[in-house]
Design brief:
With 165 residues, the protein is α+β, with helices and mostly antiparallel strands. The protein has helices spanning 17-23, 28-37, 44-49, 80-96; strands spanning 51-57, 60-65, 104-114, 125-133, 138-146, 152-163. Strands 1-2-4-5-6-3 form a 6-stranded antiparallel sheet.
Length: 165
């Protein structure tokens, strides 16, 4: 059923295959920097949820996202899964920034604490992730999701398994 208040959204994405192939020959931070510079296209999930990586340093990553109505849940606020996915992304990229070429990772666990509601009027969200303890088998990282004033909206801790070829 379509109403006068109906809204729509479309998006496009690039084939994720070529960037993944390119990533195998780059260390983690170089790969992430190529994503930031636009030399490589962002992954489809970033386009779907409107995440933008704005900076990366060894062991640290920063993303931004402006919440919109299409992120809303049935309660009329941004779904917690958006915050969770953004935090999972930023802690994963912080870990990725420490890895040599050809080495990957996957999340073992992710613990998220939701501190405040997020609305489409909240403004730009900034997610910061950092490696707490690096490792050759497991990396421990943490992240915080903040509004433009620096107020924490959600936090996360994660363990990431290092995947060697």
């Amino acid at each position: 059923m379509t109403t006068q208040d109906s809204r729509s959204r479309t998006f496009d994405w690039d084939d994720p295959g070529p960037p993944l192939v390119a990533s195998r020959g780059l260390d983690g931070i170089d790969y992430l920097r190529k994503l930031i510079s636009g030399e490589l296209p962002p992954p489809p999930i970033a386009r779907l949820l409107d995440f933008t990586m704005v900076s990366v340093e060894p062991g640290e990553a920063v993303f931004e996202c402006e919440p919109r109505e299409y992120h809303y849940n049935v309660l009329g606020m941004v779904h917690g899964g958006v915050a969770c996915t953004l935090l999972d992304t930023v802690v994963g990229c912080a870990a990725h920034s420490t890895l040599p070429a050809g080495v990957g990772y996957t999340s073992i666990d992710l613990q998220v604490a939701y501190l405040r509601p997020i609305l489409s009027t909240t403004g730009v969200l900034r997610a910061r992730g950092r490696v707490v303890k690096g490792g050759s088998r497991v990396i421990f990282a943490e992240g915080v999701l903040e509004d433009a004033a620096g107020t924490a909206l959600a936090t996360a801790t994660s363990s990431l398994l290092v995947l060697r070829p």
